[in-house]
Amino acid sequence: MKNIYFIGFMGCGKTTVASTLARSIQREWIDLDEWIVREEKMPIPHIFEQKGEVYFRALESRLLQETLTLSGKVVSTGGGIIGKEINRTCLNQETCIYLDWPFEELYRRIDGDTSRPLVKSYEQLKALYEARRPLYEASCTLQVKCEGHTPYSLTNYLVDVLKLK
Fold this sequence. Notes:
By secondary structure, this protein is α/β, with parallel strands linked by helices.
């Protein structure tokens, strides 16, 4: 049984929807960011500060590779997982759901969130969003327009579309 991966820009609800879906279909949920925090024994902003983004991305890729050896899991990823071609290739081989929100809504959700090391300014985030968007689209097997939905309505939609029950 394939894993189900969630991708999308920061603030799009990957963790919330993935955990809700996993409970709904009685599968184990894995959050890659939480796994990284456990492995490193420090929060992600500290990893970025002390070891750098390159180190973080290498660790993220290694853990993504480890999830590929598992079966039937629901996995929420970090927003930058699609930055590496190897990660995009891996995600393309699985069921990969892109939670697609308009930038303004995402910005409203993440503005001022100090736990996100890449949040610097509106302009910087908008440029990052625009750079990542085509990578999300190229990496997913299902792109879901989320505006107007709740995590629960998205979960119900995904259960139906993916025929998970």
